[in-house]
Write a structure and sequence with these properties.
The protein is α/β, with parallel strands linked by helices. Helix content is 38%, strand content 19%. The strands form two sheets. It has a seven-stranded mixed β-sheet, with helices on both faces. Strands 1-2 form a two-stranded antiparallel sheet. The longest helix has 15 residues. The radius of gyration is 20 Å and the shape is elongated.
């Protein structure tokens, strides 16, 4: 039997040899999963032996991963902003850069709004990762989690119940803002923004995620245009919209936003790579 240390090293080398990104981190997560250990434990118990049954489970996970099935789909969850979020192939896997959406929404809610009893819409909620985190950190807020995909809403419902925020998060099925029964104070939208012709050249793992959650049309802004065209009647005044975008899309998206909200203040928040990532539209 191999030790935890040796198993992580061998798994890392296997993944790295075929060009899987973040191979070391994925190896650690795989071993944590089969050993049912926390991250702290796998570092504290490096010399512990990996039993044969766990080694077999690990081999099965690695085999699937070598077929470029995303790890989150294999193990059934992804850590996002400090919580585990259940994911299936019906939803986009939450990205680390999208954690910035949660951070900036919380900042806006706590610093930029006059009341704590906010009404928030998470549009294109997918797994519900953003809505759940906002509900956890803003206990006085009411949140609508909206998606056009019913299978995605089933996953979101599971996560909402699993984190005991079902009393404050209401699901809505439909196109962008149409399901909202009332205007809201904050709209948070991580919509598909990848241009259609860029999708074929993305990593193999991305092709296993739902196309509906990726394809933003010819310039990546089709859904942004439609959301902003619906927004004047669905956003309170004052109100705030936060959109996750590709940095290259900011000039075009700003022009679209100003067509709908000519008096708005529009700013950009940067991601960890210091690139513009979140557009903030502040309606007076």
């Amino acid at each position: 039997m191999s030790s935890v240390r040796e198993t992580i090293r061998e798994t890392h080398q296997t993944l790295e040899a075929v060009g899987i990104p973040d191979a070391r981190l994925e190896a650690e997560v795989m071993v944590m999963t089969v050993m049912r250990m926390t991250r702290q434990n796998i570092f504290a118990e490096q010399e512990a032996e990996v039993p044969a049954s766990e080694a077999q489970q690990l081999a099965e996970i690695v085999a699937q991963r070598l077929e470029r099935i995303p790890l989150a789909y294999i193990i059934g969850y992804r850590e996002f902003y400090g919580i585990n979020v259940v994911v299936t192939p019906d939803v986009l896997i939450p990205r680390p850069e999208t954690e910035g959406m949660v951070e900036h929404t919380l900042f806006m809610a706590l610093m930029g709004m006059e009341t704590r009893e906010l009404t928030i819409a998470d549009v294109g909620t997918g797994s519900g990762a953003i809505a759940v985190n906002l509900a956890i950190h803003l206990p006085a807020a009411r949140i609508y989690a909206v998606d056009i995909s019913e299978p995605a809403l089933d996953v979101a419902a599971y996560n909402i119940r699993g984190h005991s925020v079902h009393d404050r998060v209401r699901l809505g099925h439909g196109d962008l803002l149409e399901p909202l029964p009332e205007p809201v104070d904050l709209i948070v939208a991580n919509l598909p923004y990848i241009p259609t012709d860029r999708i074929p050249v993305l990593q193999p793992e991305v092709h296993q995620e739902p196309q509906l959650a990726l394809d933003g049309g010819p310039d990546g802004l089709d859904l942004v245009r439609r959301l902003l065209s619906q927004a004047p009647d669905k956003l309170n005044s004052p109100g705030i919209i936060l959109l996750e975008l590709d940095p290259e899309q900011f000039p075009a998206a700003e022009a679209i936003a100003l067509q709908q909200f000519p008096d708005a203040e529009i700013t950009a928040e940067q991601d960890l790579a210091r690139r513009d990532r979140i557009m903030v539209i502040n309606r007076p």
